[in-house]
# Entry
Amino acid sequence: MALSHLKVTVGPFVFEARLEREKAPETCRIFETFLPFRNQAIHSRWSGEAVWVPLGDFQFGAGFENHTAHPSRGDILLYPGGFSETELLFAYGSSQFASKMGVLAGNHFLTVVKGGEQLEAMGKMVLWQGAQDIAFEAM
# Structure
């Protein structure tokens, strides 16, 4: 049975996020094969109020779908690589997805549905205290 939601933990903050299976089915399917997915989140350098997980040359194998450069608060995007490195972007406030190469569009595949009141505190913690562990797990 396909998952509908993931637990997303950033440092001490826990969120529940809905997989956007109808809009980004391939990204969701591929990401699910990497669960549990653990890394570190750092504050974005160019994207505004967002944290990101740089993944270098890592290839998820997903193309572009449900992609946007303007994520809403609580949206999680996967940039599958190309003009910039592969990465995840987690918007906690006003954001425009970008890199040193310019504006990027990432696949919006997760949306926070619980814990949204913690988004600003999470973002400020990453900004002022530095890298935090991030985990994506099945619920």
The helical segments are 25-32, 119-129.
